[in-house]
Amino acid sequence: QQLQQSPPLPQHQAVAHVPSPGQPRQQSAFLLQHATHQQVTHQLSKSASPQGSPPTAKSTSMAPSAAGLSPRPATAPPRSSLPEPDPVLTLERINAFQGELTRTLKWPPHSEEMVFTAGAVIIAMHASAEGAQRFFLGHTAHVVALAFDGEGQLMASAQEGKSAVVRLWDFRTGLCVAVLNGHASGMVGVDISQDGRALIGVGLDAQAKQLMVLWDISQLRFGGKPEVVARHTTEYNIKAVRFSEYEEDQIVTCGRDSVRVYRLKAQQLRGVSVRLGPPDRKTTASAGGISAALGPNIFTDIAFEHTAGRYAPEEQRFLYAASASGAVFEIDYNSRTLLCVYQLHSAAINTLVMHSGFCVTASDDRQLRVWPTGFNDYLLEAEHESGVTSVGVSPDGLSVAVGTESGAIGTLDIPTHRYTPLLRSHVAAVNAVAADPNRPQYCTASSDGTLRVWDVNTHQQLVEFDAPGEVVTAVAYHPFHHELAAGFQNGRVRVFDVTTTTLVQEHLQHRAAVTQIAFSPDGTRMYSGGADGGLCVYDVAQVYLPTKFLPSGARDMKVTLAVSPDGLYLATVARDPYRRLTSLLLFHNSTLEPYMRIETDTPVFKSIAFSANSRELWAVAETNRLDRYELLEGQLLQQVSVAHRLEINTLAVDPGNRFVVTGGTDGLIKAWSVETQHSSMQTTVPPHQAFTGHSSAVFGMAFHRDHLISVGDAENVYIWRVGNPRIPSRTDAASTAALPPLSPLPASTNAGAGWEGGAVRGSGGKGDGGGVGAIGVGKVGSPVKQWGPAETATLLQQNALAQQQQQQQQQQ
Fold it and tell me: Residue 33: how many CA atoms within 13 Å on its side-chain side?
């Protein structure tokens, strides 16, 4: 029975850097050791994606390809994407570790890199303070299991979900050499034999029964294909699987009340259970807790005597199994009988690693302990802030890599007892990100209730603000002071001093979640938009005193806002309560007098942003559309009908006005070229590049000098280096032309009554806004009509009256 050929990669996974014509393709060192050049070429072509290039982690650049491009609208003919050898963005760092899963951190043999998972991405990070990273991309769901062969050349990874696939990688070069499909779902573990000849995977079949599949992968070295050797359905629960280090073709599994040894005979796996309850079983308690002699045992991990191996005398072959009761069971491998039970922890042991002369245990009781093989007493103990879920020991046995449930990774030096933190991460979705305009720092806001400040250069966490039980939804930096403002799901806005880590001010002005926060460039005002349809204005000089509350015309409308880089204008959205149309509103930032109103056919805008020169406004519609408006007459300059396959969630404009970046629910980040000449409204898809890396929706992005920071639904934080000086436009003429000089936007000269609806809830004050000037009103792509002060006041009164009626209906 032979395994089917590897399926093509999903279209949204553009994971390979396609070489330009004439550029040699990178070959796998693992394959070159045992194959001719013709065999290597044949093998790579067999395991490649439809674009002809296999997934690679050698280069950190996520090059665009046809697989990553979005579908084209029917009215817009497709345009060729931008040249690939020089991508705009290069993935430099991922701050994330999937700590809630056990055994997802490994230290490969003969390597200075530790390997761990972050969602669907596998990361190899150097065990040093700098922590340079390599990325293995290709999985479409969370990676739940990792394994290496005895030489550290082959790596196997398994993903969860209904697309339960196992990928084989050449670890040195990062090439994916095979994709194995043998399970329907529910992968729990994989392992590679020490000699690299076989691979075992445990998951579920179509009937939701646990299935063991054994592959022969020895022919990979000679350009062959993996073959299925045996498939075995078992009624015994399995939580971990390992190849025996004592005998060939023997496999050990453990689970609930089960430790079994399987051997391959006549293309079948036949197993025998270890006797776990002999009358003379000895129990030794070393850490208190519930004794493993009572109740059922749930075994979590397996280990073998590291120094013994295949050449150990038969009387010295021992097998160790860790349990959820905090005990380690010592088993005689030859007789398959239980020798002794050591109670080492007061909570479940998640990982058990045996090395030369010592053993390392990681437990939910937050303790990492190093034991001698006799388990008389621990040699070293390290307490962590949360449960320890993964452990890896360096090849020389002097360092231990530690992964915790809170998403932290560090190394413990055994001789000196020194602990070095390497990485920290959020434990829930990251909703927003903001860049410090004055320092090499940025801040992320997460659903885990934390605000975390990071260093852009060292990628280390500097400060953490914790609000237990709350969800942080928005964040922004003050342009001059070392302060940041955060919005929460309960409607609160808090301002923190980063230097002293103190709370400066707190207000509750919104009845729903705060969706966005922004500062004026001069630092005099702060704005907050909420999901309750309101926009609140704060006076920074008066310790962030709320001064105005502007309704959008609908209480259930998510308010998005943007302030122009030159500080002249504030843009937001408003909905006509009668015609159910959403308009883009522009105000003079200094006086909050209306300047322009642009009517659209879009019910909801997800995000808006000014161009770097403050002459244009970009808007993302809920209908998955990207619009671009000029701000002299409100004309629609450009429209991309289907910018992403799924919804667009966030928008960011390059500070150099070279490109616009969008992030969507499809997990893609796209950089769109900014055209500089427009003879008419553009409906064609502009040149762009698509970048993968996010395993789920992208929620926020922010530029920081030559970096782009992106966050999303998973707990990952991505740092991209902006490597291309600019994206070339469609033609040379368009790429070299400059925008004609524009005169300043006209200021309002009419003074009228104060802004309607300007009362601030909870502040006791009245609005201090100036008069209402002329508002430009126009439809998409049409000249703007000018309304006078009287007509403007009438329109505002209608909006306020409609909102009052909605409030009365809700109260009734």
Answer: 9
Cβ neighbour number for residue 171 with a 10 Å cutoff: 26
Phi, psi of 738 (to 5 degrees): -115, 155
Contact partners, residue 360, CB within 8 Å, separation at least 6: 351, 352, 353, 368, 369, 370, 371, 391, 393, 400
Q: E-assigned strands of 162-243?
A: 165-170, 175-181, 185-192, 198-204, 210-216, 227-233, 240-243
Query: Position 590: which residue type?
Result: S
| Averaged pLDDT, 658-682 | 82
Strand, coil or helix: what is 262? Answer: strand
Question: Between 285 and 602, where is the model more confident?
Answer: 602
Query: Residue 719 has which token pair?
Result: 């740092």
Go through 503-521 and write b for each residue having 16 or more CB atoms within 10 A of its CB, e for each that does not. Answer: ebbebebbebbbbbbbbbb
C-alpha span between 727 and 749 (Å, rounded): 41
3 state SS for 628-651: EEECCCCCEEEEECCCCCCCEEEE
CA distances from 390 to 97, 192, 400 (A): 11, 19, 10
The pLDDT value given to residue 803: 63
Cβ neighbours of residue 199 closer than 8 Å, sequence gap 6 or more: 147, 156, 166, 168, 180, 190, 191, 192, 193, 214, 215, 217, 226
Which letter, b or e, does each residue of 662-695 get, where b requires 16 or more Cβ atoms within 10 Å of its Cβ?
bbbbbbbbbbbbbbeeeeeebebbbbbbbbbbbb
Closest CA to 482 of 508, 462, 457: 462
Beta strands in 334-482 (DSSP E): 337-343, 349-355, 358-363, 367-372, 380-383, 388-393, 399-404, 409-413, 418-423, 430-435, 441-446, 450-455, 461-466, 472-477
Residue 662 has pLDDT above 60, yes or no: yes
Inter-residue contact 188 to 216 (CB < 8 Å):
no
* Degrees to nearest 5, angle at CA 574 with 570 and 578: 160
Sheet architecture: strand order including 154-159 = 143-148, 154-159, 165-170, 175-181
Output DSSP code: residue 735: H
How many Cβ atoms are within 10 Å of 801's Cβ, its own excluded?
A: 12
Place of tokens 């955060």: 486
From 63-67, 165-169, 475-479, 520-524, the region with the lowest mean pLDDT: 63-67
Alpha carbon 3 to its chain's center:
32
- Give the number of other Cβ atoms within 10 Å of residue 464's Cβ: 11
Under DSSP, is residue 811 helix (H, G, I), strand (E, B) or coil? helix
Give the tokens for residue 807. 């409030």
Q: State the burial class of residue 374 (Cβ atoms within 10 Å of its Cβ: 0-12, 13-18, 19+).
A: exposed
Distances (CA, A) of 43 to 32, 47, 155, 220: 11, 6, 17, 8
> Do 30 and 192 form a contact (C-beta atoms < 8 A)?
no
User: Which one, of 571, 684, 600, 582, lies nearest residue 638 by Cα?
Assistant: 684
**8 A C-beta contact, residue 601 and residue 623:** no
In the chain, count H helices and then E strands.
4, 59
Backbone angles phi, psi at 67, to 5 degrees: -70, -25
Distance CA 446, CA 449 (A): 6
Length of the chain equals 812
d(Cα 326, Cα 566) in Å, to the nearest integer?
61
Instruction: Report the pLDDT averaged over residues 513-520.
Output: 95
How many Cα neighbours within 13 Å face the side chain of 802? 19
**pLDDT tens, 119-131?**
899 999 998 767 8
The pLDDT confidence band at residue 222, using thresholds 50, 70 and 90, is confident
Which residue's entry shows tokens 């659903």?
Answer: 447
Q: How far apart are CA 588 and CA 751, in angstroms?
A: 13
221 phi, psi to nearest 5 deg: -65, -20
Q: Rounded CA gap, 209 and 231, in Å?
A: 12
